Amino acid sequence: MNSSAFVKYFTREEGWERVREAMLEGIVTLDLAVKELANTLWKKVMRNEMSLDTARAVLRDIIDEKAIPVKGQDKYIAKAFNIAVEHGITVYDALFIVLAKESSLEFIISDKVQADVASKLGVKTMII
Fold first, then answer.
1. Dist CA 2 CA 46 (whole Å)
2. C-beta neighbour count of 47 within 10 angstroms
3. How many CB atoms lie within 10 A of CB 70?
4. Distance between CA atoms of 87 and 50, rounded to whole angstroms?
5. Distance of alpha carbon 6 from its chain centroid, rounded?
6. What is the rounded distance in angstroms from the CA atom of residue 86 to the CA atom of residue 4?
7. Mean pLDDT, residues 10-24 taken together
8. How far apart are the C-alpha atoms of 51 and 77, rounded to whole Å?
9. What is the chain written as a DSSP string?
10. Measured at the alpha carbon of residue 117, what is the angle toward residues 82 and 4, in degrees to the nearest 5?
11. What angle do CA 122, 124, 128 make, to 5 degrees?
């Protein structure tokens, strides 16, 4: 699951229900997504769109890996770099493609360009 889908679920943005359905089938994400989620939660707290207690509870569940498994990104960086260069996408985006490919899981995503690259590389995708 890429960061945008991950954030969509935990902040209940439009389409979060489809992410939940995918989560029930089994997913994994990168630690990068946790950092991006934490930043989004910070923004929501600062804008008074979410309580600090709620944001802390979400992070606590993620950090303790209660919600979904979180993988370190280091072992995927070299392959992600090559994909990024070959397909003109960011290394950040390519990291999630490599994770999905190596985990043999469907790639849950909210970005069409990233989904197209993943599909070209033989990764089954679900755009949310």
1. 24
2. 8
3. 18
4. 37
5. 4
6. 23
7. 82
8. 35
9. --HHHHHHHHTT-TTHHHHHHHHHT---EEHHHHHHHHHHHHHHHHTTSS-HHHHHHHHHHHHTTSSS-EE-SGGGHHHHHHHHHHHT--HHHHHHHHHHHHHT--EEES-HHHHHHHHHTT--EEE-
10. 100
11. 140
- Neighbouring CB atoms inside 10 A of 7's CB total 22
- AA identity, residue 117: V
Q: To which residue do tokens 């989560």 refer?
A: 23
Amino acid identity, position 111: D
Q: Which amino acid, residue 4?
A: S
What does the block give as tokens for 64?
């303790």
Instruction: Provide the 10 A C-beta neighbour count for residue 86.
Output: 12
d(CA 114, CA 52): 32
Q: What is the pLDDT of residues 45-89, one digit of tens each?
A: 999 999 999 999 988 888 886 667 889 999 999 999 999 999 999
pTM recorded for the entire structure? 0.80
